[in-house]
Amino acid sequence: MFSKACEYGIRATIHISHQSHNGNRVSLKDIAKAIDSPVAFTAKILQSLAKNNVVTSTKGSTGGYEIIENNLNKITLLHVVKAIDGDKIYSGCGLGLNTCNAHKPCPMHDQFKAIRDELKMMLETTSIKELTNGLPQGMSFLKR
């Protein structure tokens, strides 16, 4: 449902959130290793997340990525998805047709619209902090 970049973006944001909650900034290489993603690909994802104010980037020897504690409750999955994939997940056709809409629906339009609406609600109401709190103590990310 999400692009590969978006999946990595969600995983990276959860990892950064967990580290930030513990008072740590985390380096690009550490994030890439934790989410099992190539460093260059992770860098592009983090650039989008920083540009969209999901994460904060600090340069220098003590730099890295973090999420300000006050923002952990404010940042939702919607922010991450929007930063990486944009809004297309809420308007695309389930069959991939360009002309599908309420006036000219495809055979799956009504069912797929209900799923999209539910997904949007979940993304809007799920905070990064909520996801971070669900992780076992000491584990920033669970690899497959």
UniProtKB/TrEMBL annotation:
- GO MF annotations for this entry? DNA-binding transcription factor activity
List the Gene3D superfamilies: Winged helix-like DNA-binding domain superfamily/Winged helix DNA-binding domain
Signal peptide residues are none
| Cellular-component GO terms for this entry | cytosol
Which NCBIfam families does this entry report, sorted A to Z? Answer: rrf2_super (TIGR00738)
Tell me the protein's name: Rrf2 family transcriptional regulator
Q: Which organism is it from?
A: Pontimicrobium aquaticum
